[in-house]
Amino acid sequence: MTPFETITQEARASRTVLIEAYESDGTVETREIEPYSLRPGAPGKSERLYGFCLKREAVRSWTVDNIVRAEPTGNEFAPRWPVEL
Question: What is the CATH number of the domain that holds 26?
Answer without folding.
Answer: 2.30.30
